[in-house]
Write a structure and sequence with these properties.
Length: 80
């Protein structure tokens, strides 16, 4: 597996789950730990973020992040 600068980015303080996409880039789920607290996800491979930032419950955020990680092949991006 090719490693990229986005394979092991700095862990955010509110990191809940770190997944990896098909080429090893990190997909982070962040947010509150308690039930009902908002969470979000970001893919460090392609730069995609939650389509509902800071609104999704962990149950849904985890599912969406895992789904993205299982199909994303991007290792690096230069998006703002
Ligand atoms: Zn991605």
């Amino acid at each position: 597996m090719k490693l990229s600068p986005h394979t092991m980015p700095v862990e955010p303080a509110d990191l809940l789950i770190r997944l990896h996409n098909l080429v090893g880039a990190a997909v982070d789920v962040t947010g509150g730990r308690g039930y009902g607290e908002p969470t979000r996800w970001i893919c460090h491979g392609c730069g995609v973020v939650s389509d509902m930032p800071k609104e999704d419950l962990l149950l849904f955020t985890r599912r969406k992040a895992n789904g993205h990680a299982s199909e994303c092949r991007a290792a690096y991006h230069r998006l703002g």
